[in-house]
């Protein structure tokens, strides 16, 4: 250790804080054994904010429903059930992708041949996840068209208004998630997954959150609209 | 510099407090049955906060005075007892003030806003709009006619959108631009808005209540003195907000009856 | 503790070259902090000019203001302001000041610049998001200012934009067409920028603290920025939905906030079923935490600076940080105190009143701790120190008036009067800004490598301190007399005798505003001609003073500081210096 009050970046790899050594790093959502990452912290904070926004919309809906007798119930387009299954499915495929990529990352650069197939599998399942996500968004648009065909537009009734607002905002956030997935796929492809790729955990947490958020919204809309 | 600060802060605190204590600019006379409780609450708060205000500012000044000219000294002094006495004092003193003020204040509030209107109250319907108040009395039949927003026609004086042709109860409704009430008579107002948010404020009654479009909001009071008092709008409602007012006229029962008869015969 | 060395280095390479990369689209939190400060300066200047125009109109309504007539022939024909233009200026004054000044300067500007340095990091956790935050804020500012130039002018519904006045569109009056749309869009953009910024602050504080920098050893300003960003994250996350719903009501024909049967400009409005109170609940659920976003950073800055000039530790550091956290928590429980007479269930008034009063406890604790720090100090009466003392005085004044408004039984009389105006200006426009001034004089040497003029600073302080009391203390008296706020003219019978008070306030406001030019001049002149500053001219302990003035590109010249002490080690009585820097190993001088 230097006698001065600063250390050089490359020197120490293990923090020696006043409180002693770090506890064993937790296993992350993507199954990788490593220290907490900045991007994952960021995503959890973002999830807090997004949850708060949807909570605000939820309370707005509840208040609006009680404010006046003009709330008209309508039947949810059938395709929403399929969309929900698709999105849940995409979370499953994402788990599969992450498990394989974690395995590859665990191997490090030691066994490039053993890593090859799991890596390609992992990327494949990532693509499937993104595709399912895109399919979900298409399905949501079809749900909208279903409503429009019934004459239910944004301003027709408060119940439709909230339906459109909720689905549009969720869809927008999901498109962001698809963007994140594509970005991760590109990053991984550069190193064939051998080097530590930050962001997998973050994207994965975000995606599962979007899934969970949709299930919540779906139930909310099913019960109230 | 520290001594200067101490002097300035002391002068500011004393001068400010003096204007509060002397009631140089103050509330107008109170003319309502619930008013005295509000005024009493205000006085209590004034004394309680006045003590805190002066204590805080004067202590700050005193300590600034004491610390000035000492920058070349070696030693500083810790506040006696450290932080603990201050934390405890804050919790206790402020806590007690909170407790007392809330306990008493909630009764004052309840008397105005939670207690129902007394039986036999004079019912008056109040409509606020950009930028005037209109008051409707039920007339000899004691019933208010229904309001129809689509029938509102300010030009012909149909501010409330009444339909006297088809609505019997509406035929004898009296609509005026002043709130006229007899003294010592409980009055039950029903507030509604034609367009945007407004508010009903009579300083002498010590009451204020917003008009919320889409809601009918009750407000009741009993005036204890005759006279003419201003009703002003306190909720930003557009360009004429500053000019939106009406008069509350509190009359002797005899005068009131005369006035009402004159309106009803029109 | 997090091992910063395993994280990808943000600044492992050479600093950016080229003007655009260095000064415009910079990823460097220091540049971004200065950009926020510059934006806040522009906004405060605009907001101040608006306040002068408003005050002149209130005091002398018939006086023509020629420049104003040239700026807006519709708003001020022949230079005499119309009532609606007064309300436009009022709306823009509040909006600019609350959002673009008080959320920007103490929080985004100083926080961006100093949070990473104070915790020993090279930059924020997400530098690209950081850059986006600033430019998004800037875009919001442009959209907001654009409302001055549309045909109908800026909105007239106040910074609070109550529905249905703000929601029905132009039938409700001038300024409520495109102006209100631009307002809502601007605020929505601002929300997104603030959310990104808050996210960055939180992630940075949690993840990037250097070795030895535990949460307990963070400076008070860092604590304040951290708590503020948590508040901001949850608050702006509610304002954004509110703005979205408002925009939909305005342009898409929905009825979230507009009930049935409204007749405006003789037209029955085609909306139904909405709730104006819903807007108020959503807005104030954001709005109340927002005012704590405005004040907490300044409290943290004053708590950070006062010990430096008192040469003794802040009294009760844990009680102070605990109080900040308590305020953050309680701030979410009190929003209904803006709505006592709004028509919401009067029974709920008690539920909002109690936490509102309880919040005075941590506020009182913090004030007493600051006062207790002055006790027995060896005060160096520099300009930053004076602004800290001034802060304590004005925070007391502003906080005390809150005591009245927290009680529903008094609010029935004082709501919407100048008493409220006095209260929020004292705590926000005065106390919070005093924190910004203290921070400016204190940190200018670190940011620009030069000292500001202390003589000019003292003039600035004394004129401002006296001036703000002359402007805002009389407003309490006006409120007690029942003087209603947001009036463009005082025509009611009972208001006539109060006009001389208004004239006094106007003159004081113009003079106090003028005194701010001493500060602006000091900033500009010292930037280029001030005496060169040492690394640690104030003999302070925190990490920003352990590096050069200004800091190098990556803050610490390629090294990661190691922290051994808290920030509060002043007044040591060993031989040698009377303070120990955070990076100074134990028993080492």
Please give a structural write-up.
The complex is a heterotrimer of chains A (225), B (266) and C (589). In chain A, 69% of the residues lie in helices and 1% in strands. In chain A, helix 2 packs antiparallel against helix 3. By secondary structure, chain A is mostly helical. Chain A has a single domain, classed as Up-down Bundle (Four Helix Bundle (Hemerythrin (Met), subunit A)). Chain A contains five helices and one strand; from the N terminus they run E-H-H-H-H-H. Chain B has 266 residues and is an alpha+beta fold. Chain B has two domains: 99 residues, no CATH class; 143 residues, Immunoglobulin-like. The N and C termini of chain B lie far apart (74 Å). Chain C has 589 residues and is mainly α. In chain C, strands 1-2 form a two-stranded antiparallel sheet. In chain C, strand 1 and strand 2 form a beta hairpin.
Q: Shape of chain C, please?
A: globular
Total strand segments of chain C: 3
- C-alpha termini separation of chain C: 26 Å
Structural class of chain B: alpha+beta
What's the name of the CATH homologous superfamily of chain C?
Cytochrome c oxidase-like, subunit I domain
In short:
Chain A has helices at residues 38-67, 79-107, 112-149, 158-191, 200-224; one strand spanning 6-8.
Draw up the topology in text.
The complex is a heterotrimer of chains A (225), B (266) and C (589).
Chain A: E1 6-8, H1 38-67, H2 79-107, H3 112-149, H4 158-191, H5 200-224
Helix pairs in contact in A: 1-4, 1-5, 2-3, 2-5, 3-4, 4-5
Chain B: H1 2-21, H2 35-67, H3 83-114, E1 122-129, E2 132-137, H4 168-171, E3 174-176, E4 179-182, E5 186-193, E6 198-202, E7 207-211, E8 217-222, E9 227-232, E10 245-251, H5 253-264
Helix pairs in contact in B: 1-2, 2-3
Chain C: H1 19-24, H2 29-59, H3 66-71, H4 83-101, H5 104-118, H6 127-146, H7 178-207, H8 220-251, E1 263-264, E2 267-268, H9 276-310, H10 317-330, H11 348-358, H12 360-374, H13 383-405, H14 408-414, H15 418-448, H16 454-480, H17 499-529, E3 559-561
Antiparallel strand pairs in C: 1-2
């Amino acid at each position: 250790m230097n006698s001065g009050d600063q250390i050089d970046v490359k020197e120490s790899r293990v923090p020696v804080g006043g409180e002693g050594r770090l506890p064993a790093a937790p296993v992350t959502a993507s199954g990788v054994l490593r220290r907490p990452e900045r991007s994952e912290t960021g995503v959890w904070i973002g999830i807090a904010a997004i949850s708060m926004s949807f909570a605000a919309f939820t309370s707005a809906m509840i208040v609006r429903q009680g404010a006046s007798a003009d709330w008209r119930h309508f039947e949810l387009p059938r395709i929403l059930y399929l969309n929900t299954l698709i999105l849940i499915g995409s979370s499953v495929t994402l788990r599969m992708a992450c498990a394989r990529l974690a395995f590859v990352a665990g191997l490090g650069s030691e066994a490039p041949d053993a890593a090859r197939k799991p890596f390609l599998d992992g990327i494949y399942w990532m693509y499937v996840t993104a595709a399912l996500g895109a399919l979900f968004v298409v399905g949501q648009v079809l749900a909208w068209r279903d409503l429009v065909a019934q004459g239910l537009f944004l301003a027709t009734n408060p119940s439709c208004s909230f339906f459109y607002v909720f689905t549009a905002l969720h869809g927008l956030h999901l498109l962001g998630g698809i963007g994140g997935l594509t970005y991760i796929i590109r990053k991984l492809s550069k190193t064939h997954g051998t080097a530590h790729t930050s962001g997998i955990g973050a994207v994965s947490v975000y995606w599962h959150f979007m899934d969970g958020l949709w299930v919540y919204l779906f139930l909310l809309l099913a019960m109230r609209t | 510099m520290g001594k200067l600060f101490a002097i300035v802060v002391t002068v500011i605190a004393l001068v400010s407090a003096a204007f509060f204590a002397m009631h140089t600019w103050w509330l107008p006379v109170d003319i309502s049955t619930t008013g005295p409780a509000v005024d009493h609450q205000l006085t209590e708060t004034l004394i309680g906060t006045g003590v805190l205000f002066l204590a805080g500012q004067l202590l700050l000044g005193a300590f600034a005075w004491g610390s000035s000219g000492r920058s070349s000294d070696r030693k500083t002094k810790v506040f006696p007892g450290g932080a603990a006495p201050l934390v405890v004092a804050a919790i206790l003193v402020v806590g007690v003030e909170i407790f007392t003020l809330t306990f008493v204040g909630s009764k004052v509030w309840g008397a105005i806003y939670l207690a129902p209107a007394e039986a036999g109250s004079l019912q008056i319907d109040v409509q606020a709009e950009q930028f005037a108040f209109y008051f409707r009395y039920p007339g000899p039949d004691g019933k208010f006619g229904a309001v129809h927003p689509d029938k509102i026609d300010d030009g012909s004086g149909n501010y409330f959108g009444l339909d006297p042709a088809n609505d019997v109860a509406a035929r004898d409704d009296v609509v005026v631009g002043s709130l006229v009430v007899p003294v010592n008579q409980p009055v039950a107002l029903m507030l509604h808005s034609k367009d945007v948010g407004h508010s009903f404020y009579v300083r002498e009654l010590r009451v204020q209540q917003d008009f919320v479009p889409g809601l009918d909001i009750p407000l009741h009071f009993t005036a204890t003195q005759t006279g003419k008092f201003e009703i002003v709008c306190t909720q930003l409602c557009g360009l004429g907000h500053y000019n939106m007012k009406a008069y509350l006229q509190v009359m002797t029962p005899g005068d009131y009856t005369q006035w009402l008869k004159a309106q009803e015969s029109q | 503790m997090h091992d910063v060395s395993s994280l990808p280095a943000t600044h492992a390479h050479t600093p950016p070259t080229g003007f655009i990369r260095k000064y415009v689209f910079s990823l460097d939190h220091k540049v971004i902090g200065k950009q926020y400060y510059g934006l806040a300066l522009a906004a405060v200047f605009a907001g101040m000019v608006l306040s002068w125009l408003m005050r002149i109109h209130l005091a002398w309504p018939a006086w023509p203001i020629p420049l104003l007539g040239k700026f807006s022939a519709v708003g001020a024909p022949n230079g005499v302001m119309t009532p609606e233009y007064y309300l436009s200026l009022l709306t823009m004054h509040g909006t600019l000041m609350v959002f673009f000044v008080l959320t920007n300067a103490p929080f985004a500007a100083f926080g961006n610049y100093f949070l990473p340095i104070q915790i020993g990091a090279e930059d924020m956790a997400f530098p690209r998001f950081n850059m986006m935050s600033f430019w998004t804020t800037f875009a919001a500012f442009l959209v907001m200012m654009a409302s001055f130039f549309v045909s109908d002018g800026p909105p007239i519904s106040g910074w609070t934009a109550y529905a249905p006045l703000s929601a029905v569109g132009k039938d409700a009056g001038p300024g409520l067409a495109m102006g209100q749309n631009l307002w809502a869009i601007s605020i929505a953009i601002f929300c997104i920028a603030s959310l990104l910024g808050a996210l960055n602050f939180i992630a940075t504080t949690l993840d990037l603290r250097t070795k030895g920098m535990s949460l307990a050893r963070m400076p008070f300003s860092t604590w304040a920025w951290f708590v503020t960003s948590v508040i901001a994250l949850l608050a702006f996350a509610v304002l954004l939905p509110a703005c979205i719903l408002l925009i939909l009501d305005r342009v898409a024909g929905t009825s979230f906030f507009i009930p049935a049967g409204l007749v405006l400009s003789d037209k029955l409005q085609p909306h139904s079923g909405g709730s104006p109170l819903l807007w108020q609940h959503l807005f104030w659920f954001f709005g109340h935490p927002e005012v704590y976003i405005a004040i907490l950073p300044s409290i943290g800055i004053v708590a950070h600076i006062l010990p430096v000039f008192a040469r003794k530790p802040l009294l009760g550091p844990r009680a102070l940080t605990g109080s900040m956290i308590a305020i953050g928590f309680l701030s979410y429980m009190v929003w209904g105190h803006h709505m006592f007479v709004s028509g919401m269930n009067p029974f709920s008034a008690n539920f909002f009143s109690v936490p509102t009063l309880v919040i005075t406890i941590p506020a009182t604790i913090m004030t007493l701790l600051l006062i207790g720090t002055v006790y027995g100090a060896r005060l160096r009466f520099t300009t930053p120190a004076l602004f800290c003392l001034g802060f304590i005085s004005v925070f007391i004044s502003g906080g005390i008036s809150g005591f009245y408004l927290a009680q529903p039984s008094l609010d029935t009389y004082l709501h919407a009067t100048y008493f409220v105006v006095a209260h929020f200006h004292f705590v926000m426009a005065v106390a919070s800004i005093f924190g910004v001034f203290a921070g400016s004089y204190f940190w200018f040497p670190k940011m620009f490598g030069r000292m500001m003029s202390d003589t000019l600073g003292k003039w600035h302080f004394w004129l401002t301190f006296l001036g703000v009391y002359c402007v805002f203390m009389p407003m309490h008296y006006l409120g007690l007399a029942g003087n209603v706020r947001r009036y463009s003219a005082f025509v009611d019978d009972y208001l006539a005798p109060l006009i001389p008070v208004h004239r006094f306030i106007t003159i004081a406001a113009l003079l106090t505003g003028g005194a701010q030019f001493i500060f602006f001049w000091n900033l500009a002149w010292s930037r280029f001609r001030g005496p060169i500053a040492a690394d640690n001219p104030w003999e302070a302990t925190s990490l920003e003073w352990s590096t050069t003035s200004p800091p190098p590109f990556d803050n610490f010249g390629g090294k990661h500081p190691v922290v051994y002490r808290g920030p509060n080690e002043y007044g040591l009585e060993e031989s040698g210096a009377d303070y120990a820097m955070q990076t100074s190993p134990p028993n080492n001088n």
